[in-house]
Amino acid sequence: MDGDAPRPPHRRFGEEGGRQSYGGYLRLPALLAQQQPQSQAPDELLFITIHQVYELWFKLLLHELEAVREVMSRGELWRARHLFRRVHAVERVLVEQVEVLETMTPQDFLEFRSMLEPASGFQSVQFRELEFLSGLKDERYLGSFRHAEEADLARLRRRLAEPTLWDAYLDALSLRGLPVSGDEIMNSLLTVARDRGSHDDLWQLAEDLLTHDETTALWRMRHVQMVERQIGTKSGTGGSTGAPYLRGRTRLHYFPLLWELRAWL
Ligand code: HEM
Ligand SMILES: N[C@@H](CC(=O)c1ccccc1NC=O)C(=O)O
């Protein structure tokens, strides 16, 4: 019978079906049609591309962090740690990528900057979703989306109502029998920190949360350095004071208790 014949080892996977192609599977015609500069400035293509790449990574991060939240609240800590490794790797790329945009001179940016008004990173829905999901819920930012699509506003409102990564970590503590109401949380965190023999998985997971927090802060610092390099003390196209506003945001923490814990150890 033909079906019993051994397959020749050189027969390559995928030769039989032939329904899929590289560009078709990856939807490249649609993807590569989305870079549409509105000026003649040579660096506008770079500016658009880099922002789109950020938004693609934001989309993946939201997907992975939702999964992290889910598995943490179920107590599947090993799975959360596995996903955090990916999240951290992507976040390091986000920080490094700033360098690509910094190859643009401020003079070249000025060729198209005024045309961007009043748009700015303020209006990045996915960036704000990442903040809300991580635990930094600031309703005032809904105001930046007054003119946004209703679907975007709905996404943000949903994120404001949803549990955060911190809520999910508390679920994990609670499943371990550690109390998590009100004042008890710091004691539970100290128990985890001091009894690594029993709780190392919870400790490592808290460290993963902290790395997510720290890498986000690194991105904020890198972003504001780029901003100072590009526009100095000018105010932002989004209407803020620019660098001073952004400097203030570098001090934010997603998980303040994990930072405070250090003082109690
Ligand atoms: C030439 C490069 C850039 C400059 C000069 C710049 C400047 C600014 C300024 C001044 C703000 C404050 C809002 C305003 O008043 O306009 C801002 C906010 C923001 N930008 Fe940029 N930006 C640059 C590139 C980027 C890139 C590549 C991203 C990646 C997505 C980004 C994401 C954001 C986000 C998310 C915010 C809101 C931050 C917050 O509210 O905490 N920016 N940017
Ligand atoms: N806010 C920037 C302009 C800017 O960078 C920007 C403009 C439109 C869309 C995204 C942007 N990126 C981050 O703010 C500025 O004030 O120069």
TrEMBL record:
What family name appears in the similarity comment?
A: Belongs to the tryptophan 2,3-dioxygenase family.
Where do the annotations place substrate binding? Answer: F47, I48, T49, I50, H51, R113, T237
The reaction(s) this protein catalyses: L-tryptophan + O2 = N-formyl-L-kynurenine
Q: How does it assemble?
A: Homotetramer.
Q: Where does heme bind?
A: H223
Which GO MF terms are attached to this record? heme binding; L-tryptophan 2,3-dioxygenase activity; metal ion binding
This protein's pathway: Amino-acid degradation; L-tryptophan degradation via kynurenine pathway; L-kynurenine from L-tryptophan: step 1/2
UniProt keyword annotations, A-Z = Dioxygenase, Heme, Iron, Metal-binding, Oxidoreductase, Tryptophan catabolism
For the protein in the UniProt heading, the enzyme class is oxidoreductase
| Gene3D superfamilies to which the protein is assigned, alphabetical | 1.20.58.480
Per UniProt, the cofactor note for this protein states: Binds 1 heme group per subunit.
Query: Under what name is this protein listed?
Result: Tryptophan 2,3-dioxygenase
Q: What does this protein do?
A: Heme-dependent dioxygenase that catalyzes the oxidative cleavage of the L-tryptophan (L-Trp) pyrrole ring and converts L-tryptophan to N-formyl-L-kynurenine. Catalyzes the oxidative cleavage of the indole moiety.
Q: Which cofactor does it need?
A: heme
What biological-process terms (Gene Ontology) are attached?
L-tryptophan catabolic process to acetyl-CoA; L-tryptophan catabolic process to kynurenine
